[in-house]
Specification:
- The chain is an alpha/beta fold.
- Helices cover about 30% and strands about 20% of the residues.
- It has a domain at about 55-95 and about 140-295: Rossmann fold.
- Helix 4 (about 150-165) links the parallel strand 6 and strand 7.
- The longest helix has 19 residues, at about 245-265.
- The protein is globular and about 55 Å long.
Length: about 300
């Protein structure tokens, strides 16, 4: 059932939230939104945050962050998770990086890492800063949050893991990214550099080691195999990674596994397939929810695509 759009009668939680603010703000139930001003990052670029708190949830419930795709439609992504949240009792937080403040694709899916030298001002820092604000404002007791991103959101999530491996997302899931920043270690000579791989990026050896030995899940739809998808990056650097998303994801995972071997660290990533699923956020989200909240059997992981 489609969750209804936010209407004027629903309370807007706050006009602006500031990091470090201490308040006895009651936890809003149902659906709400606010503008997050990241005073620890770039306060000139507010992020719209959509949140859903189901009945029966309090400050002890898990916090589930959901990253939207290229359409910057955070509310739609929130709506897709509402029924999951109601039945499994967790809180959904969907940050929206609007075109007004993050106009270019690089501002979101590449986290502003191509244009901003200060890591605190990267978009990759926003989930961490927002998590601290939510804990401060509402008294959430969790020491980590759960993170899922699909498509461009999956691009955001896998790069966040590489660029900021000290994050507190657990589990962290990137689903059906369109293209990747490949680990440079162990993949041999290449004509491409950052953002297609980590060559020339801020992902140094220390960050790479930390990211590769920290749990991370790559989720791939076995039917996400359309090389002519209208929004698929078809640049030379992206095409070098594969013809379509499934192929590119397989190559990325293999490169990361080899990088961990060459760097001498334990590889703690997992690869999960959405069987017979294409580039479909809602169906991939359902797989992620079962994995995170319903404890599926181990054979759901690393299962080869059905032929």
């Amino acid at each position: 059932m489609k969750f209804p759009r936010l209407c004027p009668t629903i309370t807007v939680v706050a006009a602006m939230l500031m990091i470090g603010q201490v308040s006895a703000t009651p936890l809003p139930h149902d659906k709400s939104r606010f503008e997050f001003i990241d005073s620890r990052g770039d306060p000139t670029r507010p992020v719209t945050v959509w949140m859903f708190v189901p009945e029966g949830c309090d400050e002890k419930c898990p916090l589930q962050f959901v990253m939207h795709g290229v359409k910057r439609n955070g509310e739609d992504y929130l709506d897709n998770w509402v029924e999951f949240a109601k039945t499994r009792k967790f809180i959904v937080v969907a940050p929206e990086f609007t075109r007004k403040y993050f106009p270019n694709d690089d501002d979101y899916s590449l986290g502003r890492s191509t244009t901003e030298a200060d890591p605190a001002k990267w978009a990759f820092a926003v989930p961490e800063h927002l998590f601290d604000e939510l804990k401060s404002r509402y008294g959430f007791t969790a020491d980590h949050y759960r993170l899922f991103g699909h498509s461009a959101g999956g691009q955001f999530v896998h790069r966040l893991h590489l660029f900021n491996p000290g994050h507190r997302a657990d589990p962290i899931i990137a689903a059906n990214p369109g293209w990747y920043t490949m680990p440079e270690w162990g993949i041999g000579p290449t004509q491409f550099k950052f953002p297609y791989n980590t060559i020339g990026s801020r992902v140094d050896v220390a960050r790479a080691k930390a990211a590769l030995q920290k749990p991370f899940v790559l989720m791939l739809g076995t039917s996400d195999t359309n090389p002519d998808d209208a929004v698929l990056n078809k640049s030379a650097g992206a095409n070098d990674q594969g013809r379509y998303r499934l192929e590119r994801g397989e190559k990325f995972f293999a490169a990361a596994k080899l990088a961990a071997k060459n760097l001498g660290v334990e590889f703690k990533w997992n690869k999960v397939y959405g069987q017979n699923i294409g580039h479909e956020n809602e169906r991939m989200a359902a797989v992620a929810v079962r994995m995170m909240y319903d404890a599926p059997p181990d054979n759901s992981r690393d299962k080869a695509p059905e032929k």
